[in-house]
Amino acid sequence: MAATMMLPPQGSCCRYYAAFWIGDVLLVDTNLAQAIVLNNAIAQQFPPHYRFDTHFHRSVELLLCKSGTISFAIQGSEQILNPGQYIVIFPNIPHDTAAPGETTAQALHIHFHIKSACSLYGQQRPDGNQPFLMEFILSRWPFFRGVCSSQLRACLECIFEEFHTSNQNSDRLMQLYCEQLLLLLGRDLLAQCKANMDLYENSYLMDAILYINQHCSEKLVVGQIAKYAGVSPRYLTKLFQKYLDLSISSYITFIRISKSIDYKCSHPSATMAEIATEFGFSSQQHFTKAFKNTMGITPRNYFLERIGGDKSY
After folding, report:
1. What is the CB neighbour count within 10 angstroms for residue 147?
2. Residues spanned by CATH 2.60.120.280 within the chain?
3. In this structure, which topology does domain 15-196 adopt according to CATH?
4. What are the beta bridge partners of residue 110?
5. What average pLDDT does this structure show over 94-121?
6. In terms of CATH architecture, what is 202-307?
7. pLDDT (tens digit, 9 = 90+) per residue, 13-67?
């Protein structure tokens, strides 16, 4: 199975929850600047032959198919969901959504956002008991999918119910359900690929990844990253190829592109040249080429599609 990314509709109601881990327990901490943001939770109906052309999101999208058939086109791969199956799409990945059948398809649909997951840990390495957040940090998959367990279905239904009510203790219950959601998704990730645990527990690789995420706007060289991780550049290069199937420079570029998207959405007036400088690209042309190679679309067209704005960039 693979993995993907998405964002919340503009104007949607959001609830913010901060979280951190002690051992294998996720606790709520409303004092943390970084937060889990639940953007929406909706019961959705897709009429026969419905199609929503290529679109993008900054948040994580989770869709549970309850009846009918729902399909997604993600980076050239068609993913078809039948009743009882779900898909998680990670942020900023272009995808199409359709209901190709002759009957109405029904789904439970949520979007949530995890702001700069790396900064949840500061200089500390997250441990391998947090598979979902680890994959969010790694950004190596566009999406993953699975069969919805009774626990996950109940959790999603509780999130939907609490999101649309304002009863006593509703916010606290929502916090608990969001924690449960991350734990259940993490369990499914590990069940699909137990070899992931080897990656999560590789301290050298995870230290290097956190360092890249925290310093991606600076000039980065392999020797510098390897020194921080405590290994030789050659060994670190082998780790990236083994676990991520990427060169270190390709991973750096991917992280810079991902962060540049968030930056542009938060700073709509920023020019392409300013973004290129902000995230360590040598020129606007270098940024444009790297963006298109990574996302399959120029930054100009991407941001016009996503946030509109000045057509001159």
Report:
1. 10
2. 15-196
3. Jelly Rolls (2.60.120)
4. 41, 62
5. 81
6. Orthogonal Bundle (1.10)
7. 444 333 333 333 333 333 333 346 788 999 999 999 999 988 878 789 999 999 9
